[in-house]
């Protein structure tokens, strides 16, 4: 799965492809193990921690469904909040409250080492910790310098988010090879139809 977001939280939101086109929507990460592998790819877990985490999940008789459900829930809450940010709208109240709860729970479960600058450190022991890590990273994203560079791909139906790090700040596509190419093909087709 390509990671085009440029920030783990945006890559997390992008784990569903074609979010805005229900006929094509596909969840790219299914199940606890897939989430752990994704977390490694997204830079949220080291490979060693991931192996230990998977062993801990496998050794536990309680199924990790609650943790994957929490991840899917957080992702569903993130979409309208990020959409609101991109569209310069106020986020919907229910999702905002759910996001706030996620952030509070994440801090409650995090370690705060006695060192400066202070930094909340989420656990890396169980799959549930991944949800907390993402909630804390969401707080970073939504209060940090990158806020004005969060964009949503202009491809119809795509819905992927990314941090626009281009100097001009005019990046439009999740990927120039993907949605960017489709747009070029679409415009080419429209032009040739006009001429034909
Ligand atoms: Zn796109």
Give the N-to-C terminal Cα separation. 39 Å
Percent helix among the residues? 40-55%
Counted beta strands: 4
| Largest sheet entry | 2 strands, antiparallel
CATH topology: Jann2411-like fold
What can you see in these coordinates?
- The chain has 196 residues and is mainly α.
- It has one domain (8-195): Jann2411-like domain (Jann2411-like fold, Orthogonal Bundle).
- Helices cover 52% and strands 5% of the residues.
- The strands form 2 sheets. It has a two-stranded antiparallel ribbon. A two-stranded antiparallel ribbon has the order 3-4.
- The chain is globular and about 65 Å long.
- The model has no long low-confidence stretch (mean pLDDT 94).
- It binds zinc ion (ZN).
What are the SSEs and their pairings?
Elements: H1 8-13, E1 16-17, E2 26-27, H2 32-41, H3 47-59, H4 65-86, H5 93-109, H6 127-143, E3 150-152, E4 161-163, H7 179-195
Antiparallel strand pairs: 1-2, 3-4
Bound molecules: zinc ion.
Domain Zinc finger CGNR: 149-191
InterPro entries: ABATE, ABATE_dom_sf, Znf_CGNR
Protein name: Zinc finger CGNR domain-containing protein
Keyword list:
about 200 residues; mainly alpha; Jann2411-like fold; 7 helices; about 50% helix; globular; binds zinc ion
Describe the structure concisely for a colleague:
By secondary structure, the protein is mainly α. The protein has one domain: Jann2411-like domain (Jann2411-like fold), CATH 1.10.3300.
């Amino acid at each position: 799965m390509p990671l085009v977001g440029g920030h783990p939280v945006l890559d997390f939101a992008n784990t569903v492809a074609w979010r805005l086109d229900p006929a094509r929507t596909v969840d790219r990460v299914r199940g606890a193990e897939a989430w752990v592998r994704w977390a490694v790819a997204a830079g949220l877990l080291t490979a060693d921690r991931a192996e230990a985490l998977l062993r801990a999940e496998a050794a536990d008789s309680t199924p990790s469904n609650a943790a994957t459900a929490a991840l899917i829930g957080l992702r569903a809450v993130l979409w309208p909040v990020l959409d609101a940010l991109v569209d310069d709208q106020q986020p919907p109240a229910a999702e905002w409250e759910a996001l706030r709860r996620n952030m509070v729970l994440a801090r409650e479960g995090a370690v705060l080492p006695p060192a400066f600058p202070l930094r909340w450190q989420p656990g890396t022991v169980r799959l549930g910790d991944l949800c907390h890590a993402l909630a804390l990273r969401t707080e970073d994203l939504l209060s940090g310098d990158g806020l004005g560079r969060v964009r949503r791909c202009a491809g119809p139906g795509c819905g992927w988010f990314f941090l626009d790090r281009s100097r001009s700040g005019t990046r439009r596509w999740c990927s120039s090879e993907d949605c960017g190419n489709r747009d070029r093909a679409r415009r080419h087709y429209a032009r040739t139809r006009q001429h034909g």
